[in-house]
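Example for tutorial group B:
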């Protein structure tokens, strides 16, 4: 590796002088600006498949002693890092919520990094602060649709906030539940509030045995982190069985009542608008009523599905979301913003005062510093990417993308249903579905004895795991897998392929090719061969 000189003169150049036009870094920049997909398909060329092999390139625990030239470092990055990244732009990469980004984000992120604003306080962000507040207000309006007076009163008010911008759904969920906790265990005569006195005193004062958080079994794992961080404890994350993939209101009510009768208090019910595993939406309207009856906070985790609100045709699937006290949205999922864009939105503009924090040198009383009510401190100007996306796509542009993805999920479900080698496990509600390979000989398996079902499902589970790995390693396409309880199999947990149709560049032919590849892999697999010979008579 070519070493640069160790001098301030060299370092000043690094700060101020761009690389010359034919340097590696300049070439990377040009290629990225010309055609990101082409850049990725040329440079992401996974030759090393095992992580152990890749780890060898990252094995030293020493900070390099001497400076390197930027260009030679860029070469090394291409070779060691970029080559072994994941091409999330590939149209056949349909396993996760991370996909291709629209073009404008590359120059805009350069602008954002170049400006290097810090949103924690006005002094380092100026116009970025009103921009972020407006962006949160637009999202608030999409969910709660208050009148113009409401937004002109609260959008830029120093004593209020319509939400908290943060790095993602996890922090948004934690922020929302932090606010809920501080409101529930707030100050009273003789008690200074949980934020000052701590949880132990709060439980004593309020005479609470345990504080619980209720969600369906499909709740995102960030909720487990939230109850841990907030001191509520993982044992008090009440995950209700959900063989129909939703939190059933009657079950929630009965469970909540029984829980409260034991001297416990319920902090919140979490309704999910688009579960991470299957894309199902909880009955939000009814759950809001249950929360009201149980006297607890109602939070909706719409990290993934929230963008459905852009679609006139599909937004009714989230009916009742406007009754939520708080809502989590991830712009870096179905809103095609680069990672690092989450939002916790609060119905009541005063709610986040429950976590307001002041400090002497920043976040002064009466200031509009966003850092006073956010969990994170220093934050970059990601809100600009959301703001720009709102403008560049418009609600109607997003509507087209959302509707297209949902339509494509239905088309894919039809392909799966029409194919004799597959079984659709959960039909799409949004643009997510699960399925598995299943030989025609096992059609009607749900009608067999539970012992037969169990035995054969276990073999199919093993097949699903093996085919998913083989397909991923072959590198042409990627679907993910998960394990979910399925009602028609007596709530048995079953391993399934999981598909998220997020990339607008994915075509129906890509989907056909993915199914064909899976069939080809299955036909060479011993389990498939064995099950295909399974005489129907023997199942019965
Ligand atoms: C993705 C997701 C989260 C977590 O969001 P991050 O941005 O990964 O922190 C939470 N809830 C749901 C439903 C999600 O889909």
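The residue assignment follows.
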């Amino acid at each position: 590796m070519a070493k640069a000189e160790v001098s301030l003169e060299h370092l000043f150049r690094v700060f101020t002088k761009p690389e010359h036009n034919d340097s590696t870094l300049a070439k990377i920049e040009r290629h990225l600006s010309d055609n990101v997909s082409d850049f990725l398909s040329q440079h992401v060329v996974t030759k090393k498949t095992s992580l152990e092999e890749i780890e060898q390139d990252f094995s030293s625990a020493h900070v390099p002693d001497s400076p390197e030239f930027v260009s030679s470092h860029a070469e090394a990055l291409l070779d060691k890092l970029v080559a072994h990244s994941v091409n999330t732009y590939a149209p056949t990469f349909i396993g996760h919520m991370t996909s291709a980004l629209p073009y404008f984000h590359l120059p805009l992120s350069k602008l954002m990094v170049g400006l290097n604003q810090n949103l924690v306080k006005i002094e380092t962000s100026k116009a970025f602060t009103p921009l972020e507040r407006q962006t949160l207000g637009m999202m608030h309006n999409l969910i709660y649709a208050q009148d113009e007076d409401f937004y002109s009163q609260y959008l830029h008010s120093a004593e209020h906030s319509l939400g908290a911008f943060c790095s993602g759904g996890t922090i948004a969920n934690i922020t929302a539940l932090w606010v809920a906790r501080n409101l529930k265990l707030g100050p009273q005569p003789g008690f200074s509030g949980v934020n000052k006195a701590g949880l132990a005193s709060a439980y004593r004062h309020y005479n609470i045995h345990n504080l619980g958080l209720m969600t369906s079994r499909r709740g995102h794992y960030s909720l487990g982190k939230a109850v841990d961080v907030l001191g509520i404890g993982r044992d008090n994350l009440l995950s209700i069985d959900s063989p129909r993939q939703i939190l059933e209101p009657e079950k929630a009510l009965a469970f909540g009542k029984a829980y409260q009768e034991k001297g416990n208090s319920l902090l919140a019910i979490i309704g999910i608008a688009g579960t991470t595993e299957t894309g199902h939406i909880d009955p939000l309207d009814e759950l809001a009523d249950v929360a009201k009856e149980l006297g607890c906070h109602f939070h909706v985790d719409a990290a993934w599905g929230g963008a459905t609100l852009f679609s006139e045709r599909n937004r009714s699937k989230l009916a009742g979301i406007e009754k939520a006290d708080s809502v989590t949205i991830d712009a870096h999922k179905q809103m095609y913003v680069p990672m690092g864009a989450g939002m916790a939105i609060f119905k009541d503009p005063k709610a986040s005062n429950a976590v307001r924090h002041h400090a002497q040198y920043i976040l002064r009383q009466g200031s509009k510093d966003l850092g006073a009510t956010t969990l994170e401190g220093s934050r970059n100007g990601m809100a600009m990417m959301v703001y720009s996306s709102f403008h560049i796509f418009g609600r109607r542009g997003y509507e087209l993308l959302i509707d297209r993805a949902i339509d494509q999920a239905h088309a894919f479900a039809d392909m799966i249903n029409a194919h004799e080698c597959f079984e659709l496990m959960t039909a799409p509600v949004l643009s997510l579905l699960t399925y598995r390979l299943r030989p025609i000989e096992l059609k009607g398996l749900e009608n067999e004895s539970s012992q037969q079902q169990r035995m054969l499902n276990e073999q199919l589970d093993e097949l699903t795991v093996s085919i998913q790995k083989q397909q991923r390693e072959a590198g042409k396409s990627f679907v993910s897998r998960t394990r979910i309880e399925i009602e028609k199999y007596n709530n048995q947990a079953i391993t399934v392929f999981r598909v998220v149709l997020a990339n607008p560049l994915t075509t129906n032919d890509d989907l056909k090719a993915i199914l064909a590849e899976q069939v080809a892999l299955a036909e060479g697999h011993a389990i498939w061969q064995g099950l295909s010979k399974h005489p129907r008579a023997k199942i019965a």
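The CA atoms of residues 1 and 76 lie 9 Å apart. Compare this with the pattern of hydrophobic and polar residues in the output above.
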